[in-house]
Protein backbone atom coordinates (compact mmCIF):
# COMPACT_ATOMS: atom_id res chain seq x y z
CA UNK A 1 0.00 0.00 0.00
CA UNK A 2 2.86 2.37 0.77
CA UNK A 3 4.52 1.39 -2.51
CA UNK A 4 7.88 0.67 -0.92
CA UNK A 5 7.99 3.92 1.07
CA UNK A 6 8.17 4.00 4.88
CA UNK A 7 5.13 6.24 5.27
CA UNK A 8 2.16 7.51 3.28
CA UNK A 9 3.46 11.06 3.60
CA UNK A 10 6.74 10.11 1.92
CA UNK A 11 4.87 8.20 -0.80
CA UNK A 12 2.51 11.10 -1.42
CA UNK A 13 5.37 13.62 -1.63
CA UNK A 14 6.96 11.41 -4.30
CA UNK A 15 3.72 11.01 -6.26
CA UNK A 16 3.67 14.70 -7.08
CA UNK A 17 5.25 14.61 -10.57
CA UNK A 18 2.52 12.15 -11.62
CA UNK A 19 -0.49 13.78 -9.95
CA UNK A 20 0.54 17.22 -11.15
CA UNK A 21 0.67 15.99 -14.73
CA UNK A 22 -2.77 14.37 -14.22
CA UNK A 23 -4.19 17.62 -12.86
CA UNK A 24 -2.77 19.59 -15.80
CA UNK A 25 -3.84 17.01 -18.39
CA UNK A 26 -5.88 18.68 -21.15
CA UNK A 27 -5.82 22.05 -19.38
CA UNK A 28 -2.90 23.91 -20.94
CA UNK A 29 -2.15 24.43 -24.58
CA UNK A 30 -1.90 27.87 -26.19
CA UNK A 31 -4.41 28.95 -23.58
CA UNK A 32 -6.09 27.38 -20.55
CA UNK A 33 -9.09 25.07 -21.03
CA UNK A 34 -11.67 25.31 -18.31
CA UNK A 35 -15.00 24.35 -19.84
CA UNK A 36 -16.50 23.78 -16.37
CA UNK A 37 -16.76 27.57 -15.92
CA UNK A 38 -19.73 27.52 -18.32
CA UNK A 39 -21.72 25.88 -15.52
CA UNK A 40 -21.64 29.13 -13.55
CA UNK A 41 -24.59 31.31 -14.45
CA UNK A 42 -22.82 34.66 -14.18
CA UNK A 43 -22.28 37.76 -16.25
CA UNK A 44 -18.48 37.98 -15.96
CA UNK A 45 -18.49 41.65 -16.95
CA UNK A 46 -20.55 42.40 -13.85
CA UNK A 47 -18.36 40.40 -11.44
CA UNK A 48 -17.99 42.61 -8.35
CA UNK A 49 -15.70 40.62 -6.09
CA UNK A 50 -14.16 37.23 -5.44
CA UNK A 51 -13.81 35.39 -2.12
CA UNK A 52 -11.47 32.44 -1.66
CA UNK A 53 -12.60 30.29 1.27
CA UNK A 54 -10.79 27.33 2.80
CA UNK A 55 -9.08 25.95 5.91
CA UNK A 56 -5.54 24.93 6.81
CA UNK A 57 -3.33 24.00 3.88
CA UNK A 58 -6.15 24.69 1.44
CA UNK A 59 -6.37 28.22 2.88
CA UNK A 60 -2.68 28.70 2.12
CA UNK A 61 -3.36 27.72 -1.50
CA UNK A 62 -6.36 30.08 -1.51
CA UNK A 63 -4.28 33.00 -0.18
CA UNK A 64 -1.75 32.39 -2.94
CA UNK A 65 -4.57 32.51 -5.53
CA UNK A 66 -5.94 35.73 -4.05
CA UNK A 67 -2.53 37.35 -4.55
CA UNK A 68 -2.36 36.20 -8.19
CA UNK A 69 -5.88 37.44 -8.85
CA UNK A 70 -5.01 40.83 -7.33
CA UNK A 71 -1.94 41.09 -9.56
CA UNK A 72 -3.71 40.04 -12.72
CA UNK A 73 -7.19 41.50 -12.21
CA UNK A 74 -6.56 44.57 -10.03
CA UNK A 75 -9.96 46.12 -10.74
CA UNK A 76 -11.91 43.29 -9.08
CA UNK A 77 -11.42 43.06 -5.31
CA UNK A 78 -10.50 39.62 -4.00
CA UNK A 79 -10.19 38.26 -0.49
CA UNK A 80 -8.90 34.96 0.90
CA UNK A 81 -10.55 34.17 4.21
CA UNK A 82 -10.54 31.33 6.71
CA UNK A 83 -13.84 29.57 6.08
CA UNK A 84 -14.33 29.31 9.86
CA UNK A 85 -14.57 33.13 10.08
CA UNK A 86 -16.72 33.78 7.04
CA UNK A 87 -20.11 33.39 8.68
CA UNK A 88 -19.31 35.90 11.38
CA UNK A 89 -17.68 38.70 9.36
CA UNK A 90 -20.72 40.29 7.69
CA UNK A 91 -19.01 40.09 4.30
CA UNK A 92 -20.66 41.70 1.30
CA UNK A 93 -22.22 39.00 -0.90
CA UNK A 94 -24.62 39.18 -3.82
CA UNK A 95 -25.31 37.43 -7.14
CA UNK A 96 -22.34 39.21 -8.75
CA UNK A 97 -19.97 37.72 -6.19
CA UNK A 98 -17.95 34.60 -6.92
CA UNK A 99 -17.01 32.41 -3.94
CA UNK A 100 -14.21 29.92 -4.62
CA UNK A 101 -13.90 27.07 -2.11
CA UNK A 102 -10.72 25.01 -1.89
CA UNK A 103 -10.68 21.65 -0.12
CA UNK A 104 -8.97 18.29 -0.44
CA UNK A 105 -11.77 16.29 1.17
CA UNK A 106 -14.73 18.43 0.17
CA UNK A 107 -16.17 17.58 3.61
CA UNK A 108 -14.63 20.20 5.91
CA UNK A 109 -17.47 21.52 8.09
CA UNK A 110 -16.25 25.13 8.18
CA UNK A 111 -15.89 25.25 4.40
CA UNK A 112 -19.34 23.70 3.91
CA UNK A 113 -20.84 26.26 6.29
CA UNK A 114 -19.24 29.06 4.26
CA UNK A 115 -20.69 27.53 1.09
CA UNK A 116 -24.14 27.44 2.64
CA UNK A 117 -23.93 31.15 3.51
CA UNK A 118 -22.73 32.02 0.00
CA UNK A 119 -25.69 30.14 -1.48
CA UNK A 120 -28.17 31.82 0.86
CA UNK A 121 -26.93 35.18 -0.43
CA UNK A 122 -27.20 34.03 -4.09
CA UNK A 123 -23.44 34.28 -4.65
CA UNK A 124 -21.99 32.06 -7.39
CA UNK A 125 -20.00 29.11 -6.10
CA UNK A 126 -17.03 27.24 -7.50
CA UNK A 127 -15.15 24.48 -5.71
CA UNK A 128 -11.68 23.07 -6.14
CA UNK A 129 -11.91 19.63 -4.62
CA UNK A 130 -9.95 16.38 -4.67
CA UNK A 131 -12.57 13.84 -3.59
CA UNK A 132 -15.02 12.96 -6.33
CA UNK A 133 -18.67 13.50 -5.47
CA UNK A 134 -17.89 15.03 -2.05
CA UNK A 135 -20.42 17.38 -0.41
CA UNK A 136 -18.65 20.54 -1.57
CA UNK A 137 -18.50 19.23 -5.15
CA UNK A 138 -22.19 18.29 -5.15
CA UNK A 139 -23.41 21.56 -3.69
CA UNK A 140 -21.37 24.06 -5.76
CA UNK A 141 -22.41 25.58 -9.09
CA UNK A 142 -19.20 24.31 -10.62
CA UNK A 143 -16.40 21.96 -9.50
CA UNK A 144 -12.82 21.67 -10.68
CA UNK A 145 -11.12 18.48 -9.56
CA UNK A 146 -7.52 18.19 -8.52
CA UNK A 147 -6.31 14.75 -9.59
CA UNK A 148 -4.16 14.02 -6.56
CA UNK A 149 -5.68 10.58 -5.91
CA UNK A 150 -6.37 9.41 -2.36
CA UNK A 151 -4.35 11.37 0.21
CA UNK A 152 -3.97 9.16 3.28
CA UNK A 153 -1.39 11.01 5.39
CA UNK A 154 -3.01 13.63 7.61
CA UNK A 155 -0.53 16.26 6.45
CA UNK A 156 -1.57 17.49 3.04
CA UNK A 157 1.20 17.44 0.41
CA UNK A 158 0.13 16.37 -3.08
CA UNK A 159 -3.37 17.85 -2.62
CA UNK A 160 -1.73 21.25 -1.94
CA UNK A 161 0.50 21.37 -5.02
CA UNK A 162 -2.33 20.15 -7.27
CA UNK A 163 -4.51 22.91 -5.79
CA UNK A 164 -1.77 25.44 -6.63
CA UNK A 165 -1.51 24.41 -10.31
CA UNK A 166 -5.26 24.26 -10.75
CA UNK A 167 -5.65 27.66 -9.09
CA UNK A 168 -3.00 29.13 -11.43
CA UNK A 169 -4.96 27.73 -14.38
CA UNK A 170 -8.21 29.12 -12.96
CA UNK A 171 -6.68 32.55 -12.33
CA UNK A 172 -5.43 32.66 -15.94
CA UNK A 173 -8.88 31.64 -17.21
CA UNK A 174 -10.64 34.23 -15.02
CA UNK A 175 -8.21 37.00 -15.95
CA UNK A 176 -8.88 36.30 -19.62
CA UNK A 177 -12.65 36.35 -19.03
CA UNK A 178 -12.25 39.71 -17.33
CA UNK A 179 -10.14 41.15 -20.15
CA UNK A 180 -6.78 41.04 -18.37
CA UNK A 181 -3.61 39.04 -18.88
CA UNK A 182 -0.91 37.73 -16.56
CA UNK A 183 2.58 39.16 -17.05
CA UNK A 184 4.73 36.97 -19.36
CA UNK A 185 1.75 34.74 -20.11
CA UNK A 186 3.56 32.70 -22.77
CA UNK A 187 6.37 31.84 -20.32
CA UNK A 188 3.76 31.02 -17.71
CA UNK A 189 2.00 28.56 -20.05
CA UNK A 190 5.28 26.98 -21.13
CA UNK A 191 6.42 26.60 -17.52
CA UNK A 192 3.08 25.13 -16.41
CA UNK A 193 3.73 22.26 -18.81
CA UNK A 194 7.19 21.75 -17.29
CA UNK A 195 5.91 21.57 -13.70
CA UNK A 196 5.91 17.74 -13.42
CA UNK A 197 9.55 17.62 -14.63
CA UNK A 198 10.55 20.46 -12.32
CA UNK A 199 8.95 18.62 -9.42
CA UNK A 200 11.03 15.55 -10.21
CA UNK A 201 14.20 17.67 -10.08
CA UNK A 202 13.19 18.96 -6.68
CA UNK A 203 12.68 15.44 -5.32
CA UNK A 204 16.19 14.63 -6.49
CA UNK A 205 17.46 17.09 -3.84
CA UNK A 206 16.03 15.00 -1.00
CA UNK A 207 19.38 13.91 0.45
CA UNK A 208 20.52 17.53 0.79
CA UNK A 209 17.22 18.49 2.44
CA UNK A 210 17.54 15.49 4.79
CA UNK A 211 20.99 16.67 5.77
CA UNK A 212 19.78 20.27 6.35
CA UNK A 213 16.86 18.97 8.45
CA UNK A 214 19.45 17.75 11.00
CA UNK A 215 19.56 21.34 12.23
CA UNK A 216 16.19 20.68 13.93
CA UNK A 217 17.68 17.99 16.16
CA UNK A 218 17.85 19.98 19.39
CA UNK A 219 15.48 22.73 18.38
CA UNK A 220 12.00 23.48 19.68
CA UNK A 221 11.37 26.41 17.31
CA UNK A 222 11.86 27.33 13.68
CA UNK A 223 11.03 30.52 11.80
CA UNK A 224 10.02 30.77 8.17
CA UNK A 225 10.26 34.02 6.26
CA UNK A 226 9.41 35.29 2.78
CA UNK A 227 7.83 38.18 0.91
CA UNK A 228 4.96 38.44 -1.59
CA UNK A 229 4.01 34.98 -2.93
CA UNK A 230 6.84 33.44 -0.91
CA UNK A 231 5.01 34.44 2.25
CA UNK A 232 2.09 32.08 1.55
CA UNK A 233 4.59 29.31 0.80
CA UNK A 234 6.36 29.79 4.11
CA UNK A 235 3.07 29.82 6.02
CA UNK A 236 2.41 26.40 4.49
CA UNK A 237 6.00 25.26 5.19
CA UNK A 238 5.60 26.23 8.86
CA UNK A 239 2.21 24.50 9.11
CA UNK A 240 3.70 21.31 7.66
CA UNK A 241 6.63 21.33 10.07
CA UNK A 242 4.53 21.92 13.19
CA UNK A 243 1.92 19.31 12.19
CA UNK A 244 4.32 16.44 11.73
CA UNK A 245 7.34 17.24 13.92
CA UNK A 246 5.70 19.26 16.76
CA UNK A 247 8.46 21.83 16.35
CA UNK A 248 6.94 25.23 17.03
CA UNK A 249 7.10 26.94 13.66
CA UNK A 250 6.05 30.49 12.80
CA UNK A 251 5.99 32.21 9.44
CA UNK A 252 6.62 35.92 9.00
CA UNK A 253 6.67 38.40 6.17
CA UNK A 254 10.44 38.99 5.94
CA UNK A 255 9.97 42.77 6.10
CA UNK A 256 8.05 42.40 9.39
CA UNK A 257 10.97 40.77 11.22
CA UNK A 258 12.42 44.08 12.30
CA UNK A 259 9.04 45.11 13.74
CA UNK A 260 9.20 42.53 16.51
CA UNK A 261 9.94 38.88 15.64
CA UNK A 262 13.68 39.50 15.25
CA UNK A 263 13.76 39.60 19.07
CA UNK A 264 13.31 35.80 18.91
CA UNK A 265 16.43 35.24 16.79
CA UNK A 266 19.45 34.08 18.75
CA UNK A 267 22.53 31.92 18.27
CA UNK A 268 21.50 28.72 16.45
CA UNK A 269 17.85 29.70 15.82
CA UNK A 270 16.66 27.89 12.71
CA UNK A 271 15.41 30.23 9.96
CA UNK A 272 14.07 28.89 6.67
CA UNK A 273 14.03 31.73 4.17
CA UNK A 274 12.38 31.78 0.77
CA UNK A 275 13.57 34.28 -1.85
CA UNK A 276 12.11 33.27 -5.20
CA UNK A 277 10.32 36.49 -6.13
CA UNK A 278 12.82 38.55 -8.11
CA UNK A 279 11.12 41.92 -7.44
CA UNK A 280 11.71 41.60 -3.67
CA UNK A 281 14.53 39.04 -3.45
CA UNK A 282 17.29 41.53 -2.61
CA UNK A 283 15.18 42.98 0.23
CA UNK A 284 14.48 39.48 1.57
CA UNK A 285 18.21 38.68 1.40
CA UNK A 286 19.08 41.72 3.47
CA UNK A 287 16.40 40.73 6.03
CA UNK A 288 17.99 37.27 6.20
CA UNK A 289 21.43 38.78 6.67
CA UNK A 290 20.07 40.56 9.74
CA UNK A 291 19.16 37.16 11.21
CA UNK A 292 22.62 35.76 10.38
CA UNK A 293 24.19 38.71 12.18
CA UNK A 294 22.28 37.53 15.29
CA UNK A 295 23.55 33.96 14.95
CA UNK A 296 20.65 32.33 13.05
CA UNK A 297 21.21 29.01 11.31
CA UNK A 298 19.69 29.84 7.91
CA UNK A 299 18.49 27.59 5.12
CA UNK A 300 17.90 29.66 2.01
CA UNK A 301 15.66 28.53 -0.84
CA UNK A 302 16.15 30.71 -3.87
CA UNK A 303 16.46 30.89 -7.66
CA UNK A 304 19.37 29.97 -9.91
CA UNK A 305 20.42 33.59 -10.21
CA UNK A 306 20.67 34.83 -6.65
CA UNK A 307 24.12 35.57 -5.27
CA UNK A 308 24.34 33.31 -2.20
CA UNK A 309 27.98 33.66 -1.16
CA UNK A 310 26.91 34.78 2.35
CA UNK A 311 24.92 31.56 2.94
CA UNK A 312 26.06 28.08 3.92
CA UNK A 313 22.86 26.11 3.37
CA UNK A 314 21.25 26.86 0.02
CA UNK A 315 18.59 25.04 -2.02
CA UNK A 316 17.81 26.26 -5.51
CA UNK A 317 14.66 26.07 -7.57
CA UNK A 318 14.96 26.06 -11.37
CA UNK A 319 14.21 28.99 -13.64
CA UNK A 320 10.41 29.22 -13.60
CA UNK A 321 7.74 31.94 -13.91
CA UNK A 322 7.43 33.63 -10.46
CA UNK A 323 3.77 32.57 -10.21
CA UNK A 324 4.91 28.93 -10.25
CA UNK A 325 7.90 29.12 -7.90
CA UNK A 326 5.63 28.09 -5.00
CA UNK A 327 5.40 24.56 -6.42
CA UNK A 328 9.10 23.56 -6.43
CA UNK A 329 9.49 25.45 -3.13
CA UNK A 330 6.63 23.40 -1.62
CA UNK A 331 8.39 20.14 -2.46
CA UNK A 332 11.53 21.26 -0.60
CA UNK A 333 9.53 22.48 2.39
CA UNK A 334 7.53 19.23 2.54
CA UNK A 335 10.73 17.19 2.48
CA UNK A 336 12.18 19.39 5.21
CA UNK A 337 9.12 18.85 7.44
CA UNK A 338 9.13 15.14 6.68
CA UNK A 339 12.78 14.58 7.53
CA UNK A 340 12.48 16.84 10.58
CA UNK A 341 9.63 14.66 11.86
CA UNK A 342 11.48 11.41 11.13
CA UNK A 343 14.53 12.77 12.96
CA UNK A 344 12.36 13.48 16.00
CA UNK A 345 10.80 10.01 15.86
CA UNK A 346 7.26 11.26 15.21
CA UNK A 347 4.40 9.30 13.69
CA UNK A 348 4.34 11.33 10.47
CA UNK A 349 1.20 9.84 9.00
CA UNK A 350 -0.93 10.29 12.10
CA UNK A 351 0.15 13.37 14.02
CA UNK A 352 -1.37 13.73 17.47
CA UNK A 353 -4.69 15.59 17.83
CA UNK A 354 -5.32 15.82 14.08
CA UNK A 355 -7.91 14.20 11.80
CA UNK A 356 -7.71 13.94 8.03
CA UNK A 357 -11.10 15.48 7.55
CA UNK A 358 -12.46 17.97 10.10
CA UNK A 359 -16.21 17.55 10.10
CA UNK A 360 -17.01 19.73 13.13
CA UNK A 361 -17.04 23.53 13.17
O1 LIG B 1 -9.99 18.64 3.33
P1 LIG B 1 -9.62 20.06 3.44
O2 LIG B 1 -8.65 20.50 2.40
O3 LIG B 1 -10.83 20.97 3.46
O4 LIG B 1 -8.94 20.21 4.85
C1 LIG B 1 -8.55 21.45 5.33
C2 LIG B 1 -7.58 21.33 6.49
O5 LIG B 1 -8.18 20.67 7.56
C3 LIG B 1 -6.31 20.59 6.07
O6 LIG B 1 -5.67 21.21 4.99
C4 LIG B 1 -5.32 20.50 7.23
O7 LIG B 1 -4.85 21.78 7.56
C5 LIG B 1 -4.18 19.54 6.88
N1 LIG B 1 -3.92 18.67 7.98
C6 LIG B 1 -2.93 20.26 6.50
O8 LIG B 1 -1.85 19.41 6.27
Describe the structure concisely for a colleague.
This protein has helices spanning 8-14, 16-24, 56-72, 83-86, 109-120, 135-139, 158-177, 185-203, 206-213, 229-245, 278-293, 326-343, and strands spanning 49-54, 78-82, 97-103, 124-129, 142-145, 221-226, 248-253, 270-275, 297-302, 313-316. By secondary structure, the protein is an alpha/beta fold. It is globular, with a radius of gyration of 20 Å.
Describe what this molecule looks like in 3D.
The protein has twelve helices and ten strands. It has helices spanning 8-14, 16-24, 56-72, 83-86, 109-120, 135-139, 158-177, 185-203, 206-213, 229-245, 278-293, 326-343, and strands at 49-54, 78-82, 97-103, 124-129, 142-145, 221-226, 248-253, 270-275, 297-302, 313-316. The model has no long low-confidence stretch (mean pLDDT 96). The longest helix is centred in the middle third of the chain and has 20 residues, at 158-177. Strands 2-1-3-4-5 form a five-stranded parallel sheet, sandwiched between helices. The radius of gyration is 20 Å and the shape is globular. It is an alpha/beta fold. Bound molecules: 5-amino-5-deoxy-1-O-phosphono-D-mannitol. 5-amino-5-deoxy-1-O-phosphono-D-mannitol binds at residues 55-58, 103-105, 108, 111, 154-156, 243, 354, 357-358. Homodimer. One of its GO terms (biological process) is protein N-linked glycosylation. This is Glutamine--fructose-6-phosphate aminotransferase [isomerizing]. Residues 33-180, 212-351 form the SIS domain. Keywords: Aminotransferase, Cytoplasm, Glutamine amidotransferase, Membrane, Repeat, Transferase, Transmembrane, Transmembrane helix.
Amino acid sequence: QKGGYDTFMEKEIHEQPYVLSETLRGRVDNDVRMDELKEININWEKLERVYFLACGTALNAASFAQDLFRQWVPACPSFALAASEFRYGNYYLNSDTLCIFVSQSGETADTLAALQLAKEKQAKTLSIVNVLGSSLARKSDCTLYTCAGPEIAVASTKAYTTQLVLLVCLMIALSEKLGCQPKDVSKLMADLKRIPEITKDMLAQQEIVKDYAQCLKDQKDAYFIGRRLDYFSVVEGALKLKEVSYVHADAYIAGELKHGPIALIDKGTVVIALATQEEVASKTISNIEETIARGANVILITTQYQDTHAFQKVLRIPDVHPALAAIPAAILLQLFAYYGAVLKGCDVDKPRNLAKSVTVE
